[in-house]
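Translate structure to sequence.
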């Protein structure tokens, strides 16, 4: 009968007996604990509070006596009032404590002692009233005598309070002894009952355990066999052998049925897992085109199959997208990007990385093309200005060569004039006899002076041309320096060349200024010589009367001619130096042209390389705008070409005044 009982009935029977024993033990424990609690309640609610209240009364009576002494010792009304207030407060505290204690009295002996204390204390208060009256009148000695009389009454009711304390102490000790006896009896009884409960519990536990463990052992053997099969430790499964009809028997039957189903399902699952391992092995080697094809009844494995197939498809598609974009990047086509829709974590980071790479390369190409176009425009402007600088330098060199030839001719003429003047000085001793010859020589002198004036005018015109060339050369050097600064690192060498050109232009202008000063001096001297010659012609009619004056005039002409010779030689040296500087300017302009051509080739190479690649915004790239300044504007100046012809040495020149051209000095104005 017990064997066929279900497990819940067996456990209910065993635990029911234990519960009955526990209830019995609890009832007995409660009864004994209630008795102990009664004794504890007596101690805590009666004896201990009574002790506390008596102690408070005893302390308050001492404070009352101290306040009495304070009243006697006080000499002022304020001090007495304070002492009386202390007495009243202390008495109020004593009365409150007495009311509490009266409720805690529990024996006749205690009650009689309390009545005795009350009488003693009331008598003490009567004497206190007399004491206060005497103390208010400041009768200190009489008040002290009264305080001496109250000492006995104070000692009597204090002794009564101590007796009350002893009664409460004895009552608490008695209650404690009763409690200890009840506790000892209860302890022995509870231990006995507990021993009985433990023995019965062990017997019931052994019976139930043996009944349950037998069934569990059979289930365990069957499950171990099943788990060994699951763990591939065994190739077959042993079913659970249990014939009882309790829960374990029913569980064994259900488990046996499921073991058979599981065995069949595991075999199918193993086939799917083997196929999965094979496919994942190919995934590991990079073949993402493989898929799982086998179907089983296990929904988890079918879900795993679908997840793996979808994962492979997604990975294959995403990697193919990345490879396609990278292949286009390798072909210099940066227009396409990877679609990031649906991507997360590492795939999203990969797509972002490739897209960022494309954007970075596109930005770099746009910047390269922009710089190339800007450099190309700048180099074109530079080439144009350098070509103009070349033309100007060559024209300046040509003009200086012609100027040098003309000055050389003037030097020769002046030297001849000087020699002729020396001869005039020699012949002046016989001028009286040779008046007609003197008039002829004077005419020749006038003619030579006209030729000098003509040559000086030509020199002034040549100097004007040189001054204009230096002005234009300086402007072109400024343009070249600005263009070199715009070109950046590539134009650093050209900046040095442009600075050298500007220095040469400044030196040319300075030399031209010196030549102009010398020519102005020569012009003045030539005018003086011409005046003298005219005076000589007009004075030849009276030559005999004014011979001494004529000799003086000839001497003046000789001095002026020597000064002109010296001045024209200085002009010749300055023109030669200016010619050398102009030749250097031409060489610098040629070097600058080579640098500009190289810069233009580099710019075209950069633009061509950028145009060979496909990227977003390629057709919208424009050169950086160059700020419109004077050095970027075309300088249109008409260069004055002056052809200096050699003067006819024997042709009489017309008399004309030489005018200075110094009023409009263009270089100084610049």
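Result:
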């Amino acid at each position: 009968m017990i064997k066929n009982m279900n497990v819940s009935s067996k456990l209910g029977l065993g635990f029911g007996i234990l519960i009955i024993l526990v209830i019995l033990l609890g009832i007995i424990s409660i009864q004994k604990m209630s008795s102990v609690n009664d004794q504890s309640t007596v101690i805590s609610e009666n004896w201990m509070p009574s002790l506390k209240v008596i102690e408070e009364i005893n302390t308050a009576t001492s404070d009352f006596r101290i306040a009495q002494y304070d009243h006697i010792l006080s000499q002022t009304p304020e001090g007495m009032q304070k002492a009386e207030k202390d007495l009243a407060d202390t008495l109020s505290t004593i009365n409150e404590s007495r009311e509490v204690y009266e409720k805690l009295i529990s024996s006749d002996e205690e009650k009689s002692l309390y009545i005795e204390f009350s009488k003693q204390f009331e008598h003490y208060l009567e004497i206190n009233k007399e004491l206060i009256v005497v103390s208010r009148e400041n009768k200190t000695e009489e008040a002290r005598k009264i305080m001496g009389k109250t000492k006995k009454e104070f000692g009597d009711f204090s002794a009564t309070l101590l007796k009350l304390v002893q009664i409460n102490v004895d009552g608490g000790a008695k209650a404690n002894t009763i409690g200890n006896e009840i506790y000892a009896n209860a302890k022995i009884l509870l231990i006995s009952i507990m021993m009985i409960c433990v023995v019965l519990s062990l017997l019931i536990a052994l019976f139930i355990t043996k009944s349950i463990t037998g069934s569990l052992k059979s289930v365990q053997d069957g499950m171990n066999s099943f788990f060994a099969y699951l763990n591939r430790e065994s190739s077959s499964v042993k079913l659970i052998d249990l014939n009882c009809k309790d829960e374990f028997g029913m569980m064994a039957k259900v488990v046996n049925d499921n073991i058979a189903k599981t065995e069949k399902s595991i075999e199918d699952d193993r086939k799917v897992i083997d196929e999965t391992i094979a496919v994942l092995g190919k995934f590991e080697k990079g073949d993402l085109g493989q898929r799982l094809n086998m179907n089983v009844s296990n929904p988890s494995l079918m879900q795993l199959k679908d997840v793996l197939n979808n994962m492979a498809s997604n990975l294959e598609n995403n990697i193919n997208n990345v490879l396609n974009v990278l292949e286009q990047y390798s072909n210099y086509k940066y227009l396409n990007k990877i679609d990031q829709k649906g991507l997360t974590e590492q795939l999203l980071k990969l797509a972002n990385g490739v897209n960022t790479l494309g954007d970075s390369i596109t930005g770099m190409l746009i910047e390269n093309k922009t710089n190339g176009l800007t450099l190309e425009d700048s180099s074109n402007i530079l080439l144009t200005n350098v070509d103009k600088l070349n033309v100007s330098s060559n024209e300046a060199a040509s003009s200086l060569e012609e100027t040098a030839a003309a000055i050389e001719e003037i030097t020769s003429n002046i030297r001849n004039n000087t020699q002729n003047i020396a001869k005039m000085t020699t012949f002046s001793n016989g001028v009286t006899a040779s008046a007609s010859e003197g008039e002829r020589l004077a005419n020749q002198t006038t003619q030579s002076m006209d030729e000098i004036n003509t040559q000086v005018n030509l020199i002034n015109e040549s100097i004007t041309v040189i001054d204009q060339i230096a002005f234009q050369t300086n402007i072109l050097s400024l343009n070249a320096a600005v263009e070199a600064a715009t070109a950046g690192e590539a134009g650093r060498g050209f900046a040095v060349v442009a600075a050298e050109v500007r220095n040469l232009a400044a030196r040319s202008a300075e030399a031209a200024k010196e030549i102009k000063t010398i020519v102005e001096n020569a012009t003045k001297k030539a005018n003086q010589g011409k005046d003298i010659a005219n005076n000589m012609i007009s004075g030849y009619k009276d030559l005999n009367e004014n011979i001494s004056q004529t000799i003086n005039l000839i001497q003046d002409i000789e001095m002026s001619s020597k000064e002109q010779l010296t001045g024209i030689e200085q002009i010749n040296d300055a023109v030669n130096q200016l010619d050398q500087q102009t030749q250097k300017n031409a060489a610098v302009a040629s070097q600058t042209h080579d640098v500009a051509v190289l810069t233009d080739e580099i710019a075209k190479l950069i633009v061509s390389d950028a145009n060979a690649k496909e990227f977003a915004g390629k057709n919208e790239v424009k050169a950086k705008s160059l700020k419109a300044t004077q050095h970027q504007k075309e300088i249109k100046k008409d260069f004055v070409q002056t052809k200096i012809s050699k003067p006819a040495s024997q042709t009489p020149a017309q008399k004309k005044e030489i005018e200075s051209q110094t009023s409009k000095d263009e270089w100084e104005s610049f």
